[in-house]
Write a structure and sequence with these properties.
The complex is a heterodimer. Chain A is an alpha+beta fold. A three-stranded antiparallel beta sheet of chain A has the order 1-2-3. In chain A, helix 4 crosses helix 6. Chain A is extended, with a radius of gyration of 21 Å. By secondary structure, chain B is an alpha/beta fold. In chain B, 48% of the residues lie in helices and 15% in strands. In chain B, the strands form three sheets. In chain B, strands 3-2-1-4-5-6 form a six-stranded parallel beta sheet, sandwiched between helices. A three-stranded antiparallel beta sheet of chain B has the order 7-8-9. A three-stranded antiparallel beta sheet of chain B has the order 10-11-12. The longest helix of chain B has 25 residues. Chain B starts with a strand and ends in a 17-residue tail after the last helix. The chains are: A alpha+beta, B alpha/beta.
């Protein structure tokens, strides 16, 4: 938040010419690997199709991927420490429910997701979570058409 | 860095791998520990290794060890290239089935020959793994020995703590053959391949973004092109995809080409081909030894083998895509879990990472599946000392039952077990229980 605000305060064309050194961002390296067929390894966020067995099938995992002219090819991670998988699952829980909510327009799923967020659950009571989620849904209704919130508010 | 070559007496192969390895600047000065049980072959291998290193200015430290333990001590890589039983055992694998009317071409991977080569080699590889556990537990085992699927499955089942990968040149060879059939430079051919060793399918073939399968189907219609690879072209015609290894290998992996003389002639199937090659190898070995003593030269070109590329990538971090044979941990989703699959593998300084492939076209998976069953049964036969599983494996081969009855298969298996004697794993040579009598 602080970073975003400070960037907003910078003059739009201050700080000299644009960067001329290649950064570590994967985008250009991926394009280069596909175009030249020179393989690279990147960690990409991809569909978990048996890549990390201890995480739910079809969740989104960040996984080492081979990139060459055949595209981005995720690899299978053999030994993923159980305590890390357990930690990941607490976040995956929320992600799965939010995706469910967004795809189906099910408002209850939004509540479920937030109730299961580890930080929120540690700090807020269930009634607080319910009214907080209701308040946020209402405040952001214009950007959340899938939940038909404006209709709900009107009715 | 130290690389142990186990079975270095396959001198030409040793030379090829060494040429590949020592032509990398970063791998100069490597200790090359050669081992073979045949002291003459070991000497030949040593001479070849020193010659190769000198030609390449690689400064390799070449050691010859009759004692395998000394070769393994502290190794970073172990290359397995042994052939248990050599030419004599190979002859049994061909001659005994032939008496029953079963013809084979190569008989070193699938089928009856593959089963028995597997049975006599599994005890060796498990011993090797046990010694590696003691002497170089972190080393990577690069296995070149056939039968690939059976040996790799035995290794990762019984010795999962030993890192291993099965290597074969059939994927890049097939790519080069395809390129030649359609008349393009092989470097321009983009391919994706997956399946099991020797029966891997080219699921993607492209040149400059264009699918070239139509061109390959058209090329097949030219008699001189078709004649080069009749069995594989027929399989492509019927199954829709081009398969790896070769026509001579694939002829015995299916029941369509070797079951009668008419078919053998129609498809130019080279029966007993491996015996000829084995004999040629013996001649080539003598010639190689003669040339070494005479101070003559050998070609020093890079081969397509993956071994040196893997070592180089692990040492330098240069990422590469290779094809390797590994445990199916959900990589090919329509082949059985735990079978040995051949898939693209990313290798860099962080190790070898097999790629998720997903489903093969169903007819391709179905063509591979029976062999995975045979391989699993052969591994179980050896690990459990189960003679019954040897019969099961033989009965489930695709080629043998197209020619033999159940009784003939059982009798043939009995005769092969007897003939291979001490080479068979413990428990298999015991009294014939149940099935055959």
């Amino acid at each position: 938040m602080r970073q975003c605000l400070s960037r907003l305060e910078e003059p739009p064309d201050g700080h000299g010419p644009p960067p001329t050194q290649r950064t570590h961002e994967y985008g250009s390296y991926i394009i280069e690997a596909v175009e030249t067929n020179q393989p690279i390894r990147v960690n990409g966020n991809v569909l978990n199709r048996g890549l990390i067995r201890s995480l739910p099938e079809n969740c989104c995992v960040e996984d080492p991927c081979l990139v060459d002219a055949n595209g981005v090819q995720p690899t299978v991670v053999e030994h993923y420490p159980p305590q890390l998988a357990a930690l990941n699952r607490t976040n995956i829980n929320v992600q799965e429910l939010i995706v469910e909510a967004a795809l189906t327009g099910d408002v209850e799923a939004v509540h479920h997701a937030v109730m299961l967020d580890p930080l929120t659950a540690a700090v807020c009571t269930l009634p607080q979570i319910r009214s907080m989620v209701d308040e946020m849904l209402e405040a952001q209704a214009q950007w959340l058409p899938q939940f038909s919130l404006e209709e709900r508010i009107q009715s | 860095m130290k690389v142990a070559f186990i079975g270095a007496g396959s001198v030409v192969f040793t030379k090829n791998l060494l040429t590949d390895t020592l032509s990398f600047q970063e791998l100069h000065g490597t200790t090359i520990a050669l081992h073979d049980i045949d002291s003459e072959r070991l000497e030949t291998a040593g001479m070849m290794a020193r010659w190769t290193s000198e030609q390449l200015g690689a400064g390799a430290k070449v050691e010859e060890h009759l004692d395998r333990r000394r070769a393994l001590e502290g190794a970073d890589f172990v290359v397995n290239m042994v052939q248990i039983g050599m030419h004599e055992a190979t002859l049994l694998d061909f001659e005994i089935p032939k008496k029953y009317g079963l013809k084979q071409t190569i008989a070193d991977s699938m089928g009856i020959g593959g089963i028995f080569r597997g049975l006599r080699t599994i005890p060796f590889v498990l011993d090797l793994a046990a010694e590696m556990r003691e002497l170089c537990p972190k080393a990577l085992l690069l296995n070149y020995t056939n039968p690939m699927g059976i040996l790799m499955e035995a290794l990762y089942t019984a010795s999962p703590d030993i890192k291993s990968v099965g290597l074969c040149h059939s994927v890049p060879y097939t790519a080069r053959e395809i390129a030649s059939y359609i008349g393009v430079e092989h470097e321009t051919l983009l391919y994706e391949c997956a399946g099991i060793n020797h029966i891997a399918w080219m699921t993607r073939l492209e040149v400059e973004g264009e699918d070239i399968y139509p061109r390959l189907f058209a090329a097949m219609e030219e008699p001189d092109v078709y004649a080069k690879d009749k069995v594989r072209f027929e399989l492509m015609r019927r199954f829709g995809y081009f398969v790896t290894e070769s026509s001579e290998h694939n002829a015995e992996y299916v029941p369509y080409f070797l079951k009668d003389d008419r078919l053998i002639e129609l498809y130019d199937v080279p029966v007993d081909e491996y015996i000829r090659r084995s004999e040629e190898n013996l001649v080539q070995y003598s010639e190689t030894r003669r040339k070494l003593f005479a101070g003559e030269s050998f070609p020093l070109e890079r081969s397509v083998e993956y071994g040196s590329l893997i070592m180089h990538s692990l040492v330098t971090g240069e990422a590469r895509t290779i094809y390797g044979n590994v445990e199916n941990t959900g990589l090919v989703t329509n082949l059985p879990a735990g079978c040995c699959v051949e898939v693209p593998i990313l290798v860099d300084e962080t190790g070898l990472r097999p790629c998720y492939v997903g489903d093969l076209p169903p007819q391709c998976a179905a063509a591979c599946a029976p062999h995975t069953g045979v391989q699993n049964l052969t591994v179980r036969a050896a690990l459990e000392g189960s003679r019954d599983h040897v019969y099961h494996a033989a009965m489930l081969d695709r080629h043998a039952p197209s020619v033999l009855s159940l009784d003939e298969i059982a009798e043939m298996v009995d005769e092969l077990i007897e003939a291979h004697g001490e080479a068979m794993p413990e428990g298999i040579g015991s009294s014939k229980a149940g099935i055959s009598s």
